[in-house]
Automatic annotation (TrEMBL):
Keywords: Signal. InterPro entries: DUF4468. This is DUF4468 domain-containing protein. Residues 1-19 form the signal peptide. Residues 41-116 form the DUF4468 domain. It holds the Pfam family DUF4468.
Length: 168
């Protein structure tokens, strides 16, 4: 019984520690989600970089428009993208910057510069006074989108995402 309770407690603690949430960065004053992931594949920095660019091309409308920096030598990719939302019962987007840094066998991701935007409403950075009343809902939706993007990217980098048949 004690072993079962300890196992459950450990599992819950692990989930809490590994769950990434949007937090206000004391240095930049901006909300961000950041974590370092040890990847199951032992790919080199250059291999991870190349696969990440492929993932971006497959998951964004135009990789050429989204990628702001692709520095293979330093293993860094910076993208500007958006998540669609119906946050206020109308079509809108949560714009963001995604920064990917690679070293052999690991990746650090940072999502930041969150701005809610919609036609007719304008742009509202998450740090603005406007966002105060809606911050919880906006953060929850954004965290879910970030979590989905990171999971998809990790699967692709590990080679567990649906891959095309190379034996054609």
């Amino acid at each position: 019984m004690k072993t079962t309770l300890l196992t459950i407690a450990f599992a819950i603690a692990t989930l809490i520690v590994s769950a990434q949430s949007i937090e206000l960065d004391a240095t930049t004053g901006k909300y961000q989600v950041q974590a370092v992931e040890e990847l199951s594949s032992n790919l080199s920095k250059d291999e991870l970089f190349t696969k990440a660019k492929q993932w971006i091309a497959l998951n964004y409308k135009s990789a050429n428009d989204v990628i702001q920096l692709a520095d293979q030598e330093n293993g860094k990719i910076i993208c500007r993208g958006n998540f669609s939302t119906n946050l206020f019962m109308k079509k809108g987007w949560i714009e963001h910057t995604m920064i990917l840094d690679f070293k052999d066998g690991k990746m650090r991701y940072t999502f930041t510069d969150f701005v809610y935007t919609s036609p007719g409403s304008g742009d509202y950075p998450f740090e603005s006074k406007w966002a105060k009343g809606y911050r919880t809902k906006a953060h929850a939706e954004t965290e879910a989108n970030v979590k989905g993007s990171v999971a998809s990217l990790k699967d692709y980098l590990a080679g567990t995402a649906a891959a095309s048949d190379n034996d054609w």
